[in-house]
């Protein structure tokens, strides 16, 4: 599996803008857009859960070349908590209910704009990783917290 590239983040940003999708980059992809020195194999998007936004996201993903089955499209429209799609040029995780973040609107109000990329605030990224409590997150969390502390001091 190849590393997720900046060009792919641009493609996501542009397709979502064309279709007026409300989303935030979250997870390691979000941290990388904030300057975190690491790589990832996929992008994680925290997506606002609404039928209308889900419909817009289905169109944006199809514009990006993702082949969505009828079931996948329906899961996106209804905002299933977590959807992993590998049917495009890169892997994409759609997260409608990330661990550690109560409401999309709260995260949206705290977001950081990085060159037109809507990115979760680093505190939300850390909270989400901490709440997920997966082994790989536990291992990377100290580095991510160190990055957060550096970023907040700038």
Task: Please characterize this protein's 3D structure.
α1 crosses α3 (51-63) and α6 runs antiparallel to α7. It is globular and about 45 Å long. The chain is built from 7 helices and 6 strands, in the order αβαβααββαββαα. The chain has one domain: Beta Polymerase, domain 2. The strands form 2 sheets. A 4-stranded mixed beta sheet has the order 1-2-4-3, with helices on both faces. Strands 5-6 form a two-stranded antiparallel sheet. A hairpin with a 5-residue loop joins β3 and β4 (91-95). 51% of the residues lie in helices and 16% in strands. It has 154 residues and is α+β, with helices and mostly antiparallel strands.
> How many strand segments?
6
Indicate the structural class: alpha+beta
Residue runs with pLDDT of under 50 for 5 or more positions: none
Mean pLDDT: 96
Kindly state the percentage of residues in helix: 40-55%
**Which percent range describes the beta-strand content?**
15-25%
Distance between the termini: 34 Å
- Give the C-level CATH assignment: Alpha Beta
CATH architecture: 2-Layer Sandwich
* Total number of domains: 1
For the biggest sheet, the summary is: 4 strands, mixed
- The largest beta-sheet arranges its strands as 1-2-4-3
For this structure, the CATH topology is Beta Polymerase, domain 2
Multimeric organization? single chain
Radius of gyration: 15 Å
Number of H- or I-type helical stretches: 7
Q: Could you write a compact summary of the structure shown?
A:
51% of the residues lie in helices and 16% in strands. By secondary structure, the chain is an alpha+beta fold. The chain has a four-stranded mixed β-sheet with strand order 1-2-4-3, with helices on both faces.
């Amino acid at each position: 599996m190849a590393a997720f590239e900046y060009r792919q983040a641009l493609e996501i940003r542009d397709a979502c803008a064309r279709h007026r999708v409300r989303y935030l980059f979250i997870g390691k992809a979000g941290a990388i857009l904030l300057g975190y020195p690491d790589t990832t194999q996929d992008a994680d998007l925290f997506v606002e859960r609404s039928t209308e936004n889900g419909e817009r996201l289905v169109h944006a993903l199809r514009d990006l070349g993702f082949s969505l089955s009828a079931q996948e499209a329906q899961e996106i429209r209804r905002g299933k908590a977590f959807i992993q799609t590998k049917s495009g040029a890169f892997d994409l995780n759609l997260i409608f209910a990330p661990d550690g973040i109560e409401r999309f609107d709260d995260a949206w109000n705290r977001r950081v704009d990085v060159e037109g990329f809507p990115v979760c605030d680093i505190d939300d990224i850390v909270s989400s990783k901490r709440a997920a409590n997966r082994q790989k997150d536990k291992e990377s969390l100290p580095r991510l917290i160190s990055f957060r502390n550096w970023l907040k001091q700038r």
